[in-house]
């Protein structure tokens, strides 16, 4: 019969009383005061079933202590009672204190911290009243069915000269402090333990001071390997605030840093381009008929508080793959391992495997990232660093290579399909293929197979591709006449000439500072902007809707402040929705008489006399839905959280279709206001925003509609259609 034990190790831990006493951390401070356990909610299940749980307590236990070391940055403390309650609730059995915060407020506060921990039933190691006490290993005894196993935990801090000489952190023969990571002293301790207890499990837990959010150096790698050579079984380091790589050799296993556990400082992951991950390490120890086995497991967690809003949590699948790739590509040539992803229920974790039985694609890319992992969905974008030109150039080169590789492989596959008679002679199979094949991979001979069986190639047409193509065509001098209507002041006279009702407006163009406080309901808007930026619906002096945000302002002064902020952002290059400081005043269209609620926007996707879909939007809360011409609710985009609007009438549809038939262009979106007394023209949009969000089905439907519209337009031109109203207003 076997008996199992779990010893869990976690990294730097602090509830952060000092860090959260900042003006911008009021929400987190409130959480700390009322629900401190909430910070551990996302990771508690990873540690709760441990027989022994050890973490690096990187703080002191004191009530707002004074007298911290002069010149030292980031002194840290935690309220004792609250912190001890949390540690006991987590099942913490021991803490390492050999770190760069234990002596922040001097030896007296440090010794009080040790005393409070011990009183609460939590052992400590790595600090003490003298060197002998600080250097003493922590011993854990596991009692199996047949015999026992001893585990010895050794810790010490690798410290800079500043911490040793200026701050006086290091314990000496008659001086309190933390244990130093002196190579000779640590290796001598390992040898002493191994000599008297040859079958013991020895774990060294160095703390790397001065390596915040960094990868450890080759010099540190050599030191860790030396610990194993002298008899240690494991090295589980911390201090970098992020996960570092893992190495296994013939002597044992090294985690060069497990990073943080819950450490309530904002962190500098993004600023220093550090992966936002850390590790919880577990030793799964089993006794079976007197024989003992030990296997480490590594549980990745997200510890970037800015990313998680101070809610450390387990990784998801993409994040697990991302960190796995990072760690495996950091493996030394001296190692005899790679990491392999595992999953139990909803929890991802890594185990060490022999590379002879696994495949890992290492990379030597200048950016340190294999772009294929991100393109194939095996990693997220959070670790991609484009800050340097050489990194960006590397990504461009990789992207080009990937496109070429993928296209080449698809072309080979399509050729094989085209030569397979079981496919090409079977109309049913060709019909299935027609739903998914991509035109760029279809050879001439393969296209003929579809033609001979009279099978439509449904994926040939793409609205997204056509929109991108139109941009390139404009640069080549191709005239898409729908762009003549892009400017509201050009579109309004044309709308008048074809009988399309539009808002009344004065003829003057203003700078914003020239605008005066209106006395009647009006709309103030830029002559040209995108996404309703700068559009204000003024119902009265106390009800002004900013259309971009869908929020109400309470006065003209608030409007001025809001608009000036947007204009300043534009001048500073932060807001590209404007092109000029040019404004106009027009009639306010309302949903009901005397209402302060704007009408719904109806955006008609028009393809030269044919309306394919209608987008309905409520300006007040940005709700959106889509309809087909028969007013069936549809879901043409990847996001499907739509509301059910009020729709439109047959007359509305005819107005939009008729107006688009008087414009010599295959496509134009007509944006209308559904006012209480009828449909009112708002603006014309030659290229709709977020067209890339259409799903594959509607990308094809809209693309096919565009090509049908082109054919109808060509036929009408050949038959002599003159578009007189359009030519009257625009130079062709």
Structural write-up:
The protein has 732 residues and is α+β, with helices and mostly antiparallel strands. The protein folds into four domains: 2-314, Purple Acid Phosphatase, chain A, domain 2 (4-Layer Sandwich); 389-452, no CATH class; 474-503 and 592-732, 2-Layer Sandwich (D-amino Acid Aminotransferase, Chain A, domain 1), CATH 3.30.470.20; 504-587. Helices cover 31% and strands 23% of the residues. The strands form six sheets. Strands 1, 2, 3, 4, 13, 14, 15 and 16 form an eight-stranded mixed sheet that branches. Strands 6-7-9-10-12-11 form a six-stranded mixed sheet, covered by helices on one side. α16 crosses α20 (696-718). It is elongated and about 105 Å long. Residues 357-362 have low confidence and may be disordered.
Short description:
This protein is of the alpha+beta class. It has four domains: 2-314, Purple Acid Phosphatase, chain A, domain 2 (4-Layer Sandwich); 389-452, no CATH class; 474-503 and 592-732, ATP-grasp fold, B domain (D-amino Acid Aminotransferase, Chain A, domain 1), CATH 3.30.470.20; 504-587.
Helix-strand layout with pairing:
Elements (H helix, E strand, L loop, with lengths): L1 E13 L11 H9 L9 H4 L4 E6 L22 H11 L3 E3 L9 H14 L3 E3 L1 E2 L2 H5 L2 E6 L4 E11 L2 H6 L10 E2 L4 H14 L4 E8 L9 H12 L4 E3 L9 E3 L4 E3 L4 E4 L13 E12 L2 E12 L2 H4 L4 E2 L2 H13 L8 E7 L2 E7 L17 H5 L13 H31 L1 H4 L2 H8 L9 H9 L10 H13 L12 H10 L24 E5 L9 E5 L2 E4 L4 E3 L2 H16 L11 E5 L13 E6 L4 E8 L4 E5 L5 E2 L15 H11 L7 E8 L2 E8 L10 H23 L5 H6 L3
Parallel strand pairs: 1-2, 1-13, 2-3, 3-4, 7-9, 9-10, 10-12
Antiparallel strand pairs: 1-14, 5-8, 6-7, 11-12, 14-15, 15-16, 17-18, 19-20, 19-23, 20-21, 21-22, 24-25, 24-28, 25-26, 26-27, 28-29
Helix pairs in contact: 16-20
